[in-house]
Design goal:
single chain; 8-stranded mixed beta sheet; 31% helix; 215 residues; Rossmann fold
């Protein structure tokens, strides 16, 4: 299911407008900070759909009836662009284990490419809730290939995809290729995907803006 937070104005709208702004993008620290904050907000909203259990807490003056998350999800970050979002999610889900995956485009031409997954480090993922984060869900191919690669560590109970910007094409692909109970949380869905699989209006290359232009 798709949850698009741009359908209702909130503080995440301001963070999103700043990561798109070509002038504000000149400050990589601010760009990373805004990605981190977007991830924190999306993680908080996603947490409302998770399962909780009752428990009692002893205070200095008595017992308080509270609830806590039934099980901690695993935070799965697609390198390198996803690192800033990982920090935001880790601030929200501070007791979670983490997994890291490197995925990049291997171009055969300007418009044709395949997704290469090289590095995987993960705990046991079998029967657990996966939160997979990446700033941009453009074509959706990277997300699908990362999901397939992660299956060597187990099958998920549920998948939650958290991105700053998605496209209708990528949402459709993820919904078709990932498990039926996958949720997609995004700050915006942009209407256009170029022939080179870049989002328009988008924001450019999130990895370069956050961590420097790669050679």
């Amino acid at each position: 299911m798709l949850y698009n937070l741009s359908e209702e104005p909130s503080i995440i709208s301001q963070y999103l407008s700043e990561i798109r702004d070509v002038e504000i993008q000149k400050d990589p620290m601010r760009f990373r900070s805004n990605l981190e904050r977007i991830a924190s907000v999306l993680g908080y909203e996603a947490s409302k759909k998770m399962h909780y259990v009752d428990h009692n807490v002893q205070t200095p003056l008595g017992v308080s009836n509270e609830v806590k998350i039934a099980e901690n999800p695993v935070l799965i970050t697609i390198l390198r662009a996803g690192l800033a979002m990982h920090n935001g999610l880790l601030n929200t889900f501070d007791r979670c284990e983490s997994a890291f995956v490197s995925a990049y485009r291997s171009h055969t031409s300007k418009e044709e490419f395949s997704i290469e997954v090289e590095y995987l480090a993960a705990p046991n993922l079998d029967g657990r809730v996966w939160i997979i984060s990446d700033p941009m869900l453009a074509s959706g191919n990277s997300m699908v290939e990362v999901y397939k690669a992660l299956l060597k560590f187990g099958k998920p109970k549920k998948v939650i995809v958290i991105v700053s910007i998605a496209t209708p094409q990528s949402v459709k692909l993820v919904e078709n290729e990932l498990p039926q109970n996958t949720d997609i949380w995004t700050a915006a869905v942009d209407p256009e995907l170029t022939s080179e699989s870049y989002i328009v209006p988008g924001l450019g290359d999130a990895g370069d803006l956050a961590f420097g232009v790669k050679v």
